[in-house]
Design brief:
Number of strands: 4
Helix content: 40-55%
Mean pLDDT: 94
Low-confidence stretches: none
Strand content: 5-15%
Strand order of the largest sheet: 1-2
Structural class: mainly alpha
Order of helices and strands: HEHHEHEHHE
Number of domains: 2
Largest sheet: 2 strands, parallel
Length: 143
């Protein structure tokens, strides 16, 4: 769903109901009708739920997910947080090439690479952009 679908996120989830426990935790972290990616993951950890479960509940509540930790979307200026000058080390290059399929890599694989190589997630997102590797699916279901 794109920006034109703003306010209609729940339409993605037929026959799913709002879980009041999850909703309460999410609502406590929402600012300007947005839940940051980091906050969504924090709610998941607190409640021992998967990011996708938090993403579905966020959609049902019609909140936007903001500030993608890979730098892809959700920033107030509408621009990505991608560093076009990112240095792609041989290790990072190998990991991206190994994990991508048809120039697509999952968000969770990007997070794993960042953790394994002890680099920040924005660097992995930037490297993917530089190598023209699309990141999908999002752990939260934003894309």
């Amino acid at each position: 769903m794109g920006h034109q679908d703003k306010g209609h996120y729940s339409a993605k989830h037929h026959n799913v109901k709002i879980d009041n426990t999850i909703a309460e935790k999410i609502q406590g972290m929402v600012i300007d009708n947005c839940l940051t990616c980091a906050s969504a993951h924090k709610v998941g950890k607190i409640l021992a739920l998967s990011p996708s479960e938090i993403g579905v509940q966020t959609d049902l509540l019609e909140y936007r997910i903001s500030e993608c930790q890979l730098g892809l979307f959700g920033y107030s200026d509408g621009k990505k947080r991608i560093d076009p000058d990112v240095k792609i080390t041989p290790y990072l290059n190998t990991e991206l090439d190994t994990r991508q399929k048809n120039n697509i890599i999952s968000c969770i694989d990007c997070w794993t690479i960042a953790k394994d190589l002890k680099i920040n997630r924005l660097s992995v997102g930037s490297a993917c952009e530089k190598k023209k590797i699309r990141i999908k699916p999002c752990q939260l279901g934003a894309f």
